[in-house]
Write a structure and sequence with these properties.
The chain is mostly helical. It has one domain. It contains 8 helices and 2 strands.
Amino acid sequence: MKIAVIAVLFASVLAGADDADRTAGMRNGRWWNKMPIEARFGYLAGVDDMRVMVLSVVDALPHLTAGVDDMRVKVLHLVDVLPQLTPAEVGAAVDLFYKEPTNAPVAVIGALRYVKLKAEGANETELKRLEAELRQLSQ
């Protein structure tokens, strides 16, 4: 039964994406705003599981990642917000980020970076700087 539910959610997530729903190949705020809450939570759970899995492999088997550009690992650390906040809190914070229409093209991973910075107590200037950077990257 769980597999059937997951398959239906996964199919609905895939069906809900078109070209405008992606920025640089990643899902963005247009996609986020179209999705039901279950799909959003599924996405956040997937991001968190992938982050934990990749970081544990990198930590446990450093010889496998020797010589690999560590930018992807750094990005995983940047979205390390999920342990600090509940999934509902993360989802609500991402929703608030996308309430600003000009943030719609920003990738969800970028929105998670913003949420992380805000959760860490960044001031308004730092948040605005990151928001502007994310908008530029989404052009």
